[in-house]
């Protein structure tokens, strides 16, 4: 079965992108040609806190929100590769 839900500009899309060997989770909505807004979460939080704000802004902006490494759905850091305290 090839089920594809109906989507609009305000539909929140989620995925991951690999950055320096870590999978970073993101949420985005809106038209990529629109002005950009990047939503950065605080400590301790994740992009989940913007789940209602993202679609509300997506009519006007291309909205991006990511989870920092070790938060939300992003990968955990390997302490042997990424020392947390120098």
Descriptive overview:
Helices cover 6% and strands 28% of the residues. The radius of gyration is 15 Å and the shape is globular. The protein has a four-stranded mixed β-sheet with strand order 1-2-4-3. It has 86 residues and is mostly beta strands. It has a domain at 29-71.
Shape type: globular
Q: Stretches where pLDDT falls below 50 for ≥5 residues?
A: none
What about the largest sheet? 4 strands, mixed
Question: Level of helix content?
Answer: under 10%
Oligomer: single chain
How large a portion of the residues is in β-strands, by DSSP E?
25-35%
Structural class, by secondary structure, is mainly beta
Order of strands side by side in the largest beta sheet? 1-2-4-3
Instruction: Please report the number of helical segments.
Output: 1
Give the CA-CA distance, first to last residue: 52 Å
Q: What number is the mean pLDDT?
A: 87
Element-level helix/strand string: EEEHE
Integer-rounded radius of gyration: 15 Å
* Overall number of strands: 4
Quick structural gist:
The chain is mainly beta. The protein is built from one helix and four strands.
Write the layout of secondary structure elements.
Elements: E1 13-19, E2 22-29, E3 36-39, H1 53-57, E4 62-66
Parallel strand pairs: 3-4
Antiparallel strand pairs: 1-2, 2-4
Question: What attributes does this structure have?
Answer:
mainly beta; 86 residues; four-stranded mixed β-sheet; 1 helix; 28% strand
